[in-house]
Design a protein that fits this description.
The complex is a heterodimer.
Chain A (H helix, E strand, L loop, with lengths): L1 E8 L13 H11 L2 E6 L7 E6 L2 E6 L9 E8 L3 H9 L3 H4 E7 L4
Chain B lengths: L1 H17 L2 H22 L5 H19 L4 H10 L10 H14 L6 H12 L4 H7 L4 H18 L8 H20 L11 H14 L4 H14 L25 H18 L25 H5 L15 H14 L8 H14 L3 H15 L1 H12 L8 H13 L3 H14 L3 H14 L4
Classes of the chains: A alpha+beta, B mainly alpha.
Pfam families (chain A): YCII
Family (chain A): Belongs to the YciI family.
Protein name (chain A): YCII-related domain-containing protein
Amino acid sequence: MKYLMLVCTDTAPDTDPEAAPDIEAWVAERDGSGQRVLGSRLADVSAATTVRVRNGELLLTDGPFAETREVIVGFDLLECTDLDEAVEVARRHPMAYEGRLELRPLVDL
Amino acid sequence: MAGAEAYPRIVAALIRVTGDWTLAEDCAQEALVAAVQRWPRDGVPGNPGGWLMTVARNRATDVLRRATVERRKLRELAVLTDQHPTPDDPEDVVDDRLRLVFTCCHPALTLEARVALTLRTVAGVPTADIARAFLVGESTMTRRITRAKARIAAAGVPYRVPTGSALAERLPGVLAVLYLLFTRGYDADGEPAFADEAVRLARLLDELMPAEPEVAALCALLLFQHSRRAARRDAAGDLLTLAEQDRSRWDHAAIAEALTALARAERRSAPPPADSPSTTVPADSPSASARTDSPSASARADSPSGAARTDRPGPYLLQARIAACHATAPDAGRTDWPAIAHWYDELSRLRPTPVIGLNRAVAHGYAYGPAAGLALLAEARADGALDGHPPALAVEAELTARSGDPVRAALLFRAAADLVGSAAERRALLRRADGLTPPR
């Protein structure tokens, strides 16, 4: 299964700042195992543009579609056999400690 | 009837092959209905489990054929024909039921969904009965179960028993679901609705995971509690304390089974024989466990307590030991309170919750006098979590009465009675108050 892993900030990170693993090692390891198909950090939300078409008119909005205190700062596309494997990959990501990760399965068509 | 034992086996096997939870349940259910209709007429077949599996499998084949599903599933279903579950069946079938339990209890599902799904799919309890126990309508419960099954498929929850460290991490969650299922297994009137199913599931898990001390301990704990089901209430339906219960009405066969399960848990929990000559701690010996105060033992306090072969007893083993002390006492006056107090000391180190602190105070009160109990009660109340908690007031009242202050004790019993929800508990508390001082 493919999972889109949304990397988000969180207002209540882990209390131990030393606990989070290293991101470079995570990327190298997951690329090596084939579990990470692609992924990237995202530019600051101030660079986001929201696009809608209503009644034939193009509407552009400055900023993300929802104003929240937790924002998406990156993503990874994972290829895993099931949720347990995806959770094992996610729990080793530093942002599981410093923020939060959301696993969204892709619909298999 | 044989069908009840065969049900989880059939559902689990059909889910493995078809991946369709609803189809698996429907077909297993239809096989049971067919048995109820035909067995009285034609006689019970020689291999009832195999007969049921064949009927369910044929039904699933029909449905899938009509739905023109992939050939692979149909081929695998055909193989099921030749795998009648017999006592010496390959581990395959056993694993199926365990897989089902672990999938139903997956932490990616809400706790409510886990309990409902386990009852429905593993134990085969009708949705209407589950709905009643959770005080919701049947359609709400149906939706909840359907949503949980859809989530399993969509989120990619695996149909597998975890191994190694993942098993140690997941097992306590599975045991918590079974324990919750047992405590919720009594309906609003306190009648056991599916507590029997919880006990059966605990036995099944114990049989399927023969190396896990906490599984045997949970089985023992549920059996000890279940053994008192006929003695829990008086003729008016009021709850009775352990001291008030007629012990001849306890289910002594269940107690014997529980003691056997507890002995099994102790054996599994004991570290391999090392330098010390006494590695097994007898259930009734509080003195034998000074070793758990060693620095290495307390440093492990945060490790998953359900893990097998640790050098300290897990929470279910401690609770089962306490339950055994009660179950084997000839009468309330001859209960081994020092042993119970000791197991509560350990339990509160492992799970420092206010309610365990309260029970610990009760045990110390009986073992070492009311002053000791009151001191620990003050400790349990320190963080305010027991404020306005009627059982805490009742315990304070009981200890105060025994320390020779009946007037204050009666006031406390009446204060507790004002706070309790059920009329039966209220009557019991007022009875105690009236026994100490005449009613106002």
